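Q: I'm teaching a short session on how sequence maps to structure, and I want students to see two examples side by side rather than one. Could you give me a first protein with its sequence written out and its structure tokens following it? Keep the formatting plain so it prints cleanly on a handout.
A: Of course. Example one:
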Amino acid sequence: MPSATQAAAGATIVAYVPRPRARALIRSGVSRRRAQVRLAPTPEAFRGALRRRLVDAALVDVGTPGDVTPRVVALAADYPSIPFFGIAPFRAADAPLIALCARHDFVDVLADGVDDAALWCVLAARSFSARFAAALRDPPASLGLATPLQLATWRCLVAKGGRAVRTIQLARALGVTREHLSRTFAAAGAPKLKRVIDLVRLLAAAELAKNPGYDLRDVARLLGFASASLLSGTAQRVVGTRAPSLSALRAVDLVGRFVRGRG
């Protein structure tokens, strides 16, 4: 299975970091080959960045006093699927904002100057993609995926976090041809690879749809669907439900619907 760092490779991190010290820490701790960092100067820009593309982690500089930072911290309540992290010098004056981070279920608050070297490892280990891949590491038994190639393909697929992925990309990652992968994956009565790709995307869609800050258009855009109607059509075709119902369904529910539909 891909490691947390591999699952987070190519990730997007949104950061509200007014202090030059915090910006320098991000530049030194998160290289461009590891992730794309989007700096958001205002709460509005921060929310906009969260809605434009699938974000693996959100970083907030809580060492900045004033009325703006609490507004950015409070956005965590609208996006519980996205891990929020704080960063602060850990001065006595920072205590109220650090406490606010705890109330809004931040994953962690890092101490700049102490946790600098661990920044990327901490973000990568708890990123959206890493947690998604860990939760779905083993395919449900009902899918009938048991051969080494099927398992490797599934784990490569869930490491993408539900983003759009083509069969040729999976084949290249696994070192086989697209034709061999498609034919071998569906052997012994297993579902076709393209249907499994759609299922994984819908599992991610169901997770994101539970966030108050996202509507269906946001979810479709984040996961690479051309429109909310295409997302809805895929949900109807693959798991027999309309897209607005995804937020009420668990992963086990979606897999069960998928298996019954395939049967």
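Q: Perfect. Now a second example for contrast.
A: Example two:
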Amino acid sequence: MPCNYLRDHAGYVAGLGVLDSYGLSLDLHLTTEQLADAAELFATKAPESLKVVINHLACGPRLGCGEGHADADEAAQWARWRSGMAAMAARPSTFVKLSAPTVVHSEWTRDAAARGAVKTAVREAIALFGPERCMVASNFPVDRSVAPCTAADVFELLFEAASEALEGDAASLKRVFHDTAVGFYKLE
């Protein structure tokens, strides 16, 4: 049976301490189903100062991805995702990448409701984490293998959603599209 690093975590937690001791950060790839375990582990076992960024909106509620990927009940998937994201957002040194719309809904390029679901996930992540802990990122060309899109299509969608969430505030948009990533990854 494979190890669940979020539950069977002695070595994993030790590694988090090593990252923190060197002033490094952790890019954390999670699914909605792993959010609750991750929130508990990072709230109770990880160094508070360790900067963590959740990749790809924690794979969102994964709507429209087919059997085996999401609950038949989309409301239950949204509720699980929102709850887990709120728990992760409660940790001040946790950030989130607004990226990979195809993990939220694989039909976002073909269906207005699916596009709306992606925008909802982006808006809610910004509401939970604030622009100072959100950064736009890319999952391209992987997104293109799932949905017919260009990188420009992805960034246009993310810009629309972030603009709506931030009511067009230029300083907050700059933070989400530039400043947060620069600060998180110590690029200056």
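Q: What should students look for in example two?
A: Point them to this: The beta strands are 25-28, 51-54, 94-98, 134-136. Also worth mentioning: Residues 112 and 118 are 10 Å apart (CA to CA).
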